[in-house]
Amino acid sequence: SVDLVEPLEEGPACMLFTREFYTLVRDRLTPGGTMSMQAGMTKRGELAFFTSIHRTLREVFPVVAGYQSFVSCFGTPWGFIVASKKVDPNKQDARTVDKLVADRIKGSLEYWDGVTHQHAFSLPKFIRKSIAKQTRIVTDANPLIVT
To answer: How far apart are CA 43 and CA 45, in angstroms?
Structure first.
C-alpha cells in the first residue's frame, strides 16, 4: 500500500503521484504484487484527482481497478485504486475473496468480505464515465496539485 498525504502545492508528496513514481513502484513489485492507494473523493464534482490518478496508473500498469468506500470521518465516499502487473480484483468473486481472507488473516474482519469487495469495485456509472473521459497523465513535469 502506498499511503500518502495529498499532493499539496509546494508539498513533498506531489512527485509521488506521477507516472515516473508509479514506474518505480511497478518495477519493484513481484509479478503477483499489487499497489493500492487512496485517490481522493468519489463524489460528483470532485472526481478530477481520482480520475487523473486512475488514468496515469493505466499508463504504467496493465491492470488498474478503482473502488470506493464511505469514510465516515470525511462524510463522503473516498476512492482507492489498485494497480498490478496481473492481479485483477474485478475478476475475484465473493467466494474467492472470502477464501483469501480466511487463508491470510488471523481472526475475523469487521468490514471487508467477498460481498463488500464486489460492491466496492462496482463503481457508479458517473464515476465510470468520468474515468473513461479523463485524458490527463500526471508526470514530474506536470504534477497534480490539490488546492
So the answer is: 6
CATH tag, 12-133: 3.40.50.150
CB within 8 Å of 31: residues ≥ 6 apart: 85, 86
Please tell me the predicted confidence (pLDDT) of residue 4. Answer: 75
Written as nine digits, the cell of 33 is 504484487
* Cβ neighbours for 147, distance < 8 A, ≥ 6 positions apart: 9
Q: Mean pLDDT in runs of 10 for the chain (147 residues)?
A: 75 88 97 94 93 98 97 93 96 95 93 95 97 96 86
Look at residue 13 in the predicted model and tell me its pLDDT. 84
Residue 116's CB is within 10 A of a number of other CB atoms, namely 15
The residue type at 5 = V
The grid cell for 5 is: 498525504
- Catalytic residue list: 3
Handedness of CA 87, 93, 98, 103 (dihedral sign): negative
Q: Which three cell numbers stand for residue 62?
A: 496493465
pLDDT of residue 88: 96
Locate the domains of the chain by residue range: 12-133
